[in-house]
Amino acid sequence: MGAWACYGGCTVMKITRFFRMSARPHLSRRKNSGSALVELTIALSVAAIIATYANRALVERSYEALSVSSAEYLKTVGLATEQLVLNNFGEYASGSDVSGVANDLQPTLAELQSLGWLRTGFPALTPTRQQVRIDINRTNCPGPTCNIRISVCTTTPVRFDGSVDRLDLAA
Predict the structure, then answer these.
(1) Residues with Cβ within 8 Å of residue 113, at least 6 apart in sequence
(2) Under a CB-based contact definition with an 8 Å cutoff, are residues 118 and 105 in contact?
(3) Where residue 117 falls among pLDDT bands split at 50, 70, 90?
(4) In Å, what is the CA distance from 63 to each residue of 35, 43, 136, 151, 159?
């Protein structure tokens, strides 16, 4: 009987075992493929949640960076205005006209640039795309208690996403 020299049904049993063994990996693959799909769905859901939080954190960091940049911008304009006032303190204290400035109490960025207190090409808007207003206030001038106060501020509220006022990011 060839290679299988066994007694009654032995050959059939080995053949049956062969088919059973070959059928088992096929069935186990089906079971694993269903659980793999569930695991993949869970992993993608977790990744989406993490990406949402990471995106929100990235947006907040970019808002924070914009507000810090705007604060530096306003500080630079304030220092340039301070230099203007210090170099022309006699004129400001006495109420005389300051040369190079159209309105002594509200110099513009262009005037500060032309006088050399701001570098040429200094941006006209803050990083948050806002215009700046410079106010110089004099009290008790002329006189020994003359006080000159400089304020540099934006003309509009800080807004991101077009409609939300962000007072927490004001410089």
Answers:
(1) 119, 120, 122
(2) no
(3) very high
(4) 42, 30, 30, 24, 10
